[in-house]
Amino acid sequence: MRQAFDASALIQAWLDVEQALARAEAEMGLIPVAAADRIEREAVADLYDLDEIAASQHPLVPLVRALAECSLERAEAAGGRRVTDPVPIDSGINDGGAAVYLRDPDGYTIELFQAPP
């Protein structure tokens, strides 16, 4: 019973939800199947620093940060081009967050925003 509620199991459950969502989005044509495949490969709790996640105020925060970095890498692998490197936000209500701007292959500018912890 204890294993069902340990940190690794909890994080894996969150990643399982992300994986199921990606698969459903791919089936609906909202994201490429290749993106869902990559999310599936990366949705393994053992790939993340569980000590860092457990030490945070809420364990979902560093997991979201790790997934955001993967999202940036996926966007670049799909043909996106960074307009900026990730920029930490150090003032206002989003203090502690970060933003990065990308240009997609069609020329659209996309902002990836990471909310503060």
Give a quick precis of the structure:
The chain has 4 helices and 4 strands.
Map the helices and strands:
Blueprint lengths: L6 H21 L5 H10 L7 H6 L4 H18 L3 E2 L4 E2 L9 E6 L5 E6 L3
Antiparallel strand pairs: 1-3, 2-3, 3-4
Helix pairs in contact: 1-2
Care to describe what's here?
There is one protein chain. The protein has helices at 7-27, 33-42, 50-55, 60-77, and strands at 81-82, 87-88, 98-103, 109-114. The protein starts with 6 loop residues before the first helix and ends with a strand. It has two domains: 1-78, Orthogonal Bundle (Fumarase C, Chain B, domain 1); 79-117, no CATH class. It is built from four helices and four strands, in the order ααααββββ. By secondary structure, it is of the alpha+beta class. The radius of gyration is 16 Å and the shape is flat. α1 (7-27) packs antiparallel against α2 (33-42).
CATH class of the largest domain: Mainly Alpha
What Rg is obtained from the alpha carbons, in whole angstroms?
Answer: 16 Å
Percent of residues in beta strands: 5-15%
Say what the CATH topology of the largest domain is. Answer: Fumarase C, Chain B, domain 1
The CATH homologous superfamily name of the largest domain equals Fumarase/aspartase (N-terminal domain)
Mean pLDDT: 77
- C-alpha termini separation: 30 Å
Kindly state the number of beta strands: 4
Structural class: alpha+beta
Key traits:
117 residues; alpha+beta; Fumarase C, Chain B, domain 1; 2 domains; 4 helices; 14% strand; flat
